[in-house]
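I have been asked to look over a protein record a colleague put together. Alongside the sequence sits a line of tokens, each denoting a local backbone shape. Please read both lines and tell me whether the tokens look consistent with the sequence. I do not need a full report, just your reasoning and any doubts. I have pasted the whole thing underneath without changing anything.
>
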Amino acid sequence: MSAIPSWRAGFELEVILGDLGDPRFERELRDGEAMDEASPTFCRAFASKLRERTRRAWSAPTKSPQRPGFYVVPEYGLDPLNWPECRLAGVELLTPPLPLDEAEAVRTELYEAIYEIDGDFNFFANEHTDGCGWHINIDAGDGYRLDPDRFILGVDELLLLANNDRLFSRYTGLQRHAVGVPLLRHLAQDPQGKFLLGTALGNLLDASAGRDKGYAANFGKLLKGYLELRHFSAESFFNGPHLIEQLERIPAAFEVWPAHSHPFEQAFRRKFLLLSRWLVRIRGKLEWDLTHGLVAATGRVHFAGEPLGHLMANGLVELTLYGRGEHEYVATIRDIVLADIPEAVALLALDLAELYNLGVRQRASSNKAFQRAVLQLAGQLRKAPGLSSSAQLDELAKAETLRRAMHPQFYAKAGP
């Protein structure tokens, strides 16, 4: 691993556009409906306008790009069915990896150009733009390895997703959900966590990390040399602070050296030991059932004899906790198996307890006994201040200070 990372970021930004002030598209919008898929002509027209305003080589390839560049491509995941009459097509804007300051400059160029071309529709969160994402692909330069366990131990994904209003969506699963089930299974046999010392915890986390687009941190992209971050909304692209501020602790977490990782491993282990003991106390209150369906089996989870959440099983299982209103849901975990329902409930309880302690407004569970159990868990977490998000940030700052003190010559060259 190289000693000093050289961070870069590339963007994938989804936007919903109008007629671009182009007579061809004005007629199309007036005479018909929004495009199910942005046409090659539309993508080329928008790329041309971006080229004119940014002086960068924006283009609209008809096939999937084989190398990084500035591209306008159709975005298939945006449903035009209920768009307002002024919207015509959804596109995705792709940029190559760039040093963070240059990436921020491109971001500024883009939102200024989009405002000039299309107005401010994409700048504000609404029922249409809420579905638009801003994915940030990061790497740290040649030879610098991005280890999943460094991210899992050092990044508070829950807070990051809450700040971007991206919690519990289909494509923003927490890495803690991926690693938490096998970790809780382990602790059922190792109640003191004595076999998770040394390199054992890191090995377990690396082996269990989520590696597909269902996770906000998609470690599957590491095979291509970068990490895809799906925590961010398009609204935060247009209105959020500087890119470096939005990335928050992610680069710092990857930069923690093994010699400085003990506080992070200890806090993570202690948190799961606490959760494991909580699960021992409530496990007997859980029960669930499934019934056959035409496409997938469905059922309910009960806690203390009352409904807690909905199950859908089609090979793997999705569990969603009920809120207090009709069709209101509190939290979701996916890709578990039936035998892991108690562990899944515990992981969602941990999410809700930490959101409560962070002061993040969240819907409450309709199951009063479960809600009381979550608040008890939140109280136990508060009694251990070293497990908080702020304590994690403090440790990251300490690790950076130690790193710079040990190798001032490298950091003098690298700059801030």
